[in-house]
Amino acid sequence: MSVNQQAHTGPPYGQPQPAYQRYQQPGYGGQQMPGVPHSQYGVYNGPMPGYQQPAPPQGPLRTPPTSGAPPPTSGALLPVGQPAYNQFGQGDVQNGIPASDMKGTSHNNLISFPGPSTSVPPASGSFTATGSGLYTPYSSSQGPRPASMTHGLPPTSLSQGVPLAQPAFSGPPLSMQRLPSQGSGYAPPPSSTGIGPSNYPSTTGAPRPSTMQSPPLSGQALAGLPASQPNHLASPPPPQQAMSGPHPGPPMTGLQGPPPPSTHPSQPGYQIQQNGSFGQVRGPQPNYGGAYPGTSNYGSQPGPPPPPKRLDPDSIPSPIQVIEDDRNNRGSEPFVTGVRGQVPPLVTTNFLVKDQGNASPRYIRCTSYNIPCTSDMAKQSQVPLAAVIKPLAMLPTEETPPYLVDHGESGPIRCNRCKAYMCPFMQFIEGGRRFQCCFCSCVTEVPPHYFQHLDHTGKRVDFYDRPELSLGSYEFLATVDYCKNNKFPDPPAFIFMIDVSYNAVKSGLVRLICEELKSLLDYLPRGGNLEESAIRVGFVTYNKVLHFYNVKSSLAQPQMMVVSDVADMFVPLLDGFLVNVNESRAVITSLLDQIPEMFADTRETEMVFAPVIQAGLDALKAAECAGKLFIFHTSLPIAEAPGKLKNRDDKKLINTDKEKTLFQPQTNFYSNLAKDCVAQGCCVDLFLFPNQYLDVATLGVVTYQTGGSIYKYSYFQLETDQERFLNDLRRDVQKEVGFDAVMRVRTSTGIRATDFFGAFYMSNTTDVELAGLDCDKTITVEFKHDDKLSEDSGALLQCALLYTSSAGQRRLRIHNLSLNCCTQLADLYRNCETDTLINYLAKYAYRGVLNNPVKTVRDALINQCAQILACYRKNCASPSSAGQLILPECMKLLPVYLNCVLKSDVLQPGPEVSTDDRAYIRQLVTSMDVAETNVFFYPRLLPLTKVDVDNDALPAAIRNSEERLSKGDMYLLENGLNIFVWVGVNVQQGLIQNLFGVSSFSQISNTMSTLPILENPFSKKVRSIMDMLQAQRSRYMKLIIVKQEDKFEMLFKHFLVEDKSMSGGASYVDFLCHMHKEIRQLLS
Ligand SMILES: [Zn+2]
């Protein structure tokens, strides 16, 4: 690649750029990706017709209230049942505040809470009258019952003072705590963004265009290989006793007797209510309470048991409904990015993006697209201002990847002062001779070769010919000034480092890896349309010592060199260690054939780990290139060597002040090593196969700080886990990675990036350093005010990522985004995105556990969200009774999603969750994009008997609660790490036969890791749905078959996140009540 060519204009803009071929790499296994080639680059045709103002930036471009007109369905008044006591609140709800009265807008969601139960008359009597799920709104005017006053007192939240904006803990110094990360996935479209077929078909009948048969674009590329994904479930089945609880299952009328009296203390503010759905009254959930100190009274009231009561789940905001409404309202039109501050469709909606000046939401999503003008306002609302950035996200084939702009030796045009890159928001003045920076206002001369005349509107006449003037995302070819040591980089190298201990050999893992590599090496990333990959490869095996291999093409056989002085690691050979695959193919194949034989009889169980990384790093240093280490490792490194670890796992620390130590590395040896790796551009991917604790919190440090990925296969067994592992490995090896990267986020005056979350390293407060950054990794950036913003000029972000492509080309990828600014809180609340907010909050909380008791972290999260909602209630909604919970339309799912984060394994682990699982999940979530956190915290649950085998659409998803399940149905649940198939005890025999190939429920094996391939429409349809889901995720999900009432059912129930959890997590209904109480306390 002649990077030095002197082209001054953007290169072949408008025509396919070779460099981008990567987007259509042939699938592994030789299959071409269907239908990709043509439009990768879509021709750039200038602005979309309908787009009037190409340059969003300047001027008071008022964004149309994107969140504006709420979909009719999401009406403001939430399900109002018939109040059991009409005299209470009914009016509040039904005639309540006219929507127009609400300052905030018409999108309020009112949820009325019933009054204190004590005020309730003989409950049972009154309920019978109301049939449908209703709950009586409680209006304070009705005379709150005494209980409610005393309850809730020593209100924890009160004691914190109202402005409890700041969570009790403050994050650790930015650069200090990066967790490991991971994320992977390759080709396919950003999973979530909804590229694939619309996942949840609208029930309304409007057929969605998408189709199921052909898995989402990217999915096809994967055809032969699924992606893989570790699962965090402890393999061993949960203790049996867990099963003793009530069966899950379909509305089990009759199963659930009235709760014991003692457990039904009346709860202030909670209202009795009948369960409309099943005609049955449910009692409060006993587990609740533990989690929230403030509610200690709950459940302990003496006195005769008042009738059980609770909110009707059907009356509270439903994630399924919100997802479906968005899909119906926004899935059909492309999302055009020309207008400042537009809120994009949800990540669960399938939509196309047209770049007209702002980066696609596939690259950047924000917690709010309209940010407060002042810091005081921002503090008042407590809404975090953050952007989730995925700089190298893969796009669906229908969308155009960023164009590559080559300005020749002079390099990209930048502001003289702040060094921001040329972008659509720069203002050309003086006839085009100078431009004023949109970030810092400094005026810079336009270099002669870049000069162009302006038209009568002040726009350059070559506006549409230059990506950097008209698009939100594009790339610049970097000059030598952007390279280390002022020298263009060599292509990166991949080093495969295989644990050949007794466990690894005996499980068949070593042989499996070697066999796979023989073919996988043909699919290394090519970073463009190169004939063959430029990446060189090297091989190391290890146990207590390291074995290096010379695979130089001129050798007849590979040569092994052993380094046993692990304390002073060095690479024994330079020439012949890193080679071109094609040139050395015969020697490499021979080596991979021999490795399993050479160690077949090993008895070695003591392993080293740090010296392995050190060796890989030294090899890259010697070769003067960046690269990636693929380490396959099985156990805690206890052999005498640097980085030696001890088993310090101790579950007794859970719920103590020392719990945080479980997440901290046991030595800082690894972070020092990571620092060296980052300096060299050495990214470390880790594949773990533990049979016991191996200290993921410590081993994962280097992976995390180098931007690598971690995969974990506990109790690895060839039969059940190889498909998942191989798919993960294939995807991981093939995906595009930017090496030796540095990312900086510039902002316009008034705000600045203050905090960063993700897998990377920082040596100062502004530059995010990534030894490697792949297409699945996100970096979440938080912003704070440092001055006032103006509604006219809005706010701008520019994310610039400097990296080395897998072809060895140095590039800059630029993403720009303009946001609105507001002086009214209502505008903020109208333009928020809850999924992104949850992504930020989860990462913030998961980082917080490093330095704070988990309970402190949970309380801080609850408190912050209560303040967000209380601020809305106080400033944006019109006055109404305290018995009503009013949620902003854009945040009506905040409580349910927040609860999912609070009861996740990291923050509230059940007994079956291991310390390593928690550290692992914590690391994964830290690099997840918004779509991934969305499905991870609120899994997707699909009724399989509702699939239409003649239709491409997926069945409509249902809410994650046991009471939504029917004994006669089968369900598929996925969360990005696992796929469960739950089979009810009454499922028709014919369906069981068709899906599992056995004749009865009792014969279904729950150890199968894939569904049998049966030639009937139902089997084909279900398998195609699974293939499609696998293709959407960055890791291959583990399939777990769960039979109702079987021992594995507890694992499954753990994911029914609207229910209370075994580990003490609250149900959605109970949590909503709790949030309401917190909000009321803040307001009072
Ligand atoms: Zn500037």
Describe the structure using short key phrases:
1084 residues, alpha/beta, SH3 type barrels, Rossmann fold, Severin, eight-stranded mixed β-sheet, seven-stranded mixed β-sheet, 25 helices, binds zinc ion
What's the shape?
globular
Query: What's the CATH first level of the domain at 493-650 and 658-735?
Result: Alpha Beta
Mean pLDDT across the residues is 78
**Which spans of ≥5 residues are poorly predicted at pLDDT below 50?**
1-107, 115-303
Bound ligands, each once: zinc ion
Structural classification: alpha/beta
CATH topology of the domain at 493-650 and 658-735: Rossmann fold
- In CATH terms, the superfamily of the domain at 493-650 and 658-735 is von Willebrand factor, type A domain
In DSSP terms (H or I, runs of 4 or more residues), the helix count works out at 25
Cα Rg: 29 Å
Strand content range: 5-15%
Biggest beta sheet summary: 8 strands, mixed
The CATH architecture assignment of the domain at 493-650 and 658-735 turns out to be 3-Layer(aba) Sandwich
Calculate the terminal CA-CA distance, rounded to whole Å: 67 Å
Total count of strands: 32
Q: Residue share in helices? A: 10-25%
GO molecular function, one term: SNARE binding
Domain Zinc finger Sec23/Sec24-type: 412-450
Biased composition (Low complexity): 10-26
Protein name: SEC24 homolog C, COPII coat complex component
